[in-house]
Design brief:
Pirin, 4 helices, Pirin-like protein, globular, Jelly Rolls, alpha+beta, RmlC-like_jellyroll, 41% strand, 8-stranded mixed beta sheet
Length: 371
């Protein structure tokens, strides 16, 4: 019985005699019992529902199935196209985080993509996002303090050396996770001919960790754990995906996942609710957050809103590759001066003095030059 029929019965009850009211009440109860029984039969046998109801149920189930497991799916709150700019010595990067449109995303300070085969003259600022570096361009001797850098090679290789005697080359698929801590001076230069492509992420350190001793974690491509399901493959640089955990220790709790989705594939990834997160699209285009969102293409940073997980669909005819990066906010003041990131202006002044006078972590700066 719908609301209109109930209203008719109520009017009858108020307008009739006592005997008539009793008869109407009896009829009303019989009718309601029959209505409840019909609804019960529909539950037992869904084929008795109407075509329109079946269609609506199918749509609801389809959308629910695509975001299953999330109480609050994360949606895209901002889309930023990485901007090309000069860095280092003749290198060009495509910066997505660390510019006016998105200065920081706590705990992340910068993301550069060096996948563009371009040349120019730049100035060292200690931040690298996405671009390509070809010899003789590169990032010669420069300092860091107060944060971590994560370099992920997509093609080619980069040779790294620092004033503490560390030296090595990372190649396609390799990762170097460097904690600058109290201070380091190093160089990052192309290894071999041709374009060297990759991503570099800057992750802030809390005030209690900014002056720790520098350290490195290097992962060869073959050592990075992988998982695959229904056309979605993931390389787990940090954090967990599809039940597989990375061995990398992250001083600032961080998730760093490299996904590749075949055409028609989709993936649902859990993200801790208290963390900030973003996506950077390396190649292809995909739908992020909800099924009816507009597709987003390569070189875009997608800042994610609050929630407990992200859903992604590849509805194109080509593979979609993107990194999903999320981390626990530090919730402390950030004062940055180029490659130095501290909590106060006074700490920045002290860092500049330490660097200029080769002290408090920069003792080797006076004599060391990369080879």
């Amino acid at each position: 019985m719908d609301a209109e029929e109930v209203l008719v019965y109520i009017k009858k009850l108020t307008n009739k005699s006592k005997d008539t009211n009793k008869k109407i009440q009896t009829d009303f109860l019989v009718y309601m019992r029959a209505s409840i029984y019909r609804n019960f039969l529909k539950i037992l046998n869904p084929t008795t529902t109407t075509k329109t109801s079946n269609s609506r149920i199918r749509n609801i189930m389809s959308e629910s199935d695509q975001s299953i497991g999330f109480d609050t799916p994360r949606l895209v709150t901002k889309k930023i196209l990485g901007k090309l700019q000069h860095e280092g010595d003749g290198a060009v990067v495509r910066r997505g985080i660390g510019r006016s449109e998105q200065k920081f995303l706590d705990p992340f300070l910068m993301l550069d993509d060096f996948s563009e085969i371009l040349y120019g003259i730049g100035i060292i600022r200690g931040l690298v996002v996405a671009a390509a570096v070809s010899p003789p361009a590169g990032f010669p001797d420069h300092p860091h303090r107060g944060f971590e850098t994560v370099t992920y090679m997509l093609q080619g290789g980069i040779t790294h050396q620092d004033f503490a005697g560390h030296k090595g080359t990372i190649h396609t698929g390799d990762v170097q996770w460097m904690t600058a801590g109290r201070g380091i001076i190093h160089s990052e230069m192309p290894a071999g001919e041709g374009a060297q492509k990759g991503l570099q992420l800057w992750i802030n350190l809390s005030s209690q960790d900014k002056m720790i001793e520098p350290r490195y974690q290097e992962l060869l491509s073959d050592d990075i754990k992988r998982a695959e399901k229904d056309g979605a493959e993931v390389r787990i640089i940090a954090g967990e995906s599809m039940g597989v955990q990375s061995p990398v220790y992250t001083r600032t709790p961080t998730m760093y996942l490299d996904f590749t989705l075949k055409p028609t594939a989709h993936v649902h990834q859990n993200i801790p609710e208290s963390w900030n997160g973003f996506v950077y699209i390396i190649e292809g285009e995909g739908v992020f957050g909800k099924p009816n969102s507009s597709p987003s293409a390569a070189h875009h940073v997608l800042v994610l809103g609050p929630g407990d997980g992200l859903s992604v669909w590849n509805r194109s005819s080509k593979p979609l590759r993107f990194v999903l990066i999320a981390g626990q906010p530090i919730n402390e003041p950030v004062v940055q001066y180029g490659p130095f990131v501290m909590n106060t202006e006074a700490e920045i002044d002290q860092t500049i003095e330490d660097y200029n006078y080769s002290k408090n972590g920069f003792e080797m700066a006076r004599f060391w030059r990369s080879q």
